[in-house]
Amino acid sequence: MKFLVLILLLFQSFHSYSNFEWNSNCNDAYNKIIRLEFDLAKQIIIKEKKANPENRIVYLLDNYIDFFKIQIGEEKSDYLHNTKQVENRIIAISKGNKDSYWHDYCLAEIYIQTAANRLKFGDYFKAALEINKAYRLLSANKEKYPQFIPNNKSFAILETLIGSIPNKYDWVLSLVNMNGSINNGIKNLEEIIEEIKISDQYNYLIDESYFYCSFLKMNLQNDTSGLNTLISNIEDSPLEILKFAGNRIASKLGENDLAISILQNRTENKDAYPFKYLDFLQGKGKLNKLDKSAKNEFQSYIKEFKGENYIKSSYMYLSWLAIIDGDTNSFYNYQTAINSNGSTLVGSDKEAQNQFLNKTIPNVDLLKARLLFDGGYFEKSLDILHEITFSNKSQFFIESIYRKAVNYEKLGMLESAKQNFLLTFELGRLKTTYFGAKSALHLGRIFQKEGKVLNSKEYYQKCIDLKNHEYEQSLEQKAKAGLNSLRISNP
Hints:
By secondary structure, the protein is mainly alpha-helical. The chain has helices at 2-16, 24-34, 38-51, 57-73, 76-94, 101-120, 124-144, 149-163, 170-176, 182-197, 206-220, 224-234, 240-252, 256-264, 277-287, 294-304, 311-324, 328-340, 347-358, 364-374, 378-386, 397-410, 414-428, 435-449, 453-465, 472-489.
């Protein structure tokens, strides 16, 4: 009997470590948070604080709510509120049992979430410092408790993100001795997901892990097979964060109809925080089919979203719908609205602002070809491109070659694709548009698939070397991921 009591005490100590206890209240609150039911989660957290005032886990849960609200809603008032609360939460957690495997993990999670929030609002330096703090905490915790799955999940995510940091921020990594690898990080995260699936104790992490894995693979790996496997696991999920991920993966795979259907199958949840970005994505999906009803989603997003991102893009897309419909007056009205609304933190908003500044009316046929390509309707896109020609002095000449190249690549016509990408790179490498740099990225990937390592490395590096163009940071990040994958497969 004494032996049984001892075992029970040891198990209780292992699970909660005194003032870090992931109990039923914490589990229920977390599940509400993942469903974006923040008010219901807060009620459970308050209940737990009263029942167990020494439990430090609640401060992490509080921060989870702020994190998701800021990432989804992008309201500056929420961001400023969170920055004031973070220090109090760090202090409260720091007072907990330092021998608990939860102690450093909770601190690291708050630093990661705070860094992500800072990145959302352009505070890159402070974000880098907080990533450093999180990295050191997770590294130390991993050494002490190598089987602690939540810590391993977060370390794998951080390892991937550090491996993708653009060259101009490498000085931060060298200062603090942080090391990362995109492929190793994602591989580790995929292995951890398999562990989570069969873990009774940490199974609650599966949806969050799928969410992060989706976006890391989608943005940093050229792995179509892996994305197909992921979408099969999440496309039927009722969670809005996984519908978001599923929609983006489907779009990445060129499955525009699937992307639209994933968001159409949403059920209204009056308890959930409004995820208005999904309206924007649904509008983009419809736009890619040249469906005029996309106008409703973009107008809804502009009206109801309180943040700054994708507002300029929405006005740009509305202007495209107008010009496709032959409505020049509305085109100019929407273009004017680009300049006076939103921000330029994300790539598509920068493109929208540049389009306004350049005072350029898009070529309608090229625009249709672009949108159909974005939706995965490659043959329809190419049919339009074959019917139009531009002189080499036309402002649309480089774009027309690039549009043909990407369609040829998707249709498996790789020699034609390479010829057009090479020409686009040579003509576009000194321009501020993205066509030259992105052609270099495509060439790097094609040569890599063909086993031509030196050619692949050359064009990945050329993509990185090109500066002062649209989507610069995103393209550099992807090219850097390509170089990393070459080093791993060809040591």
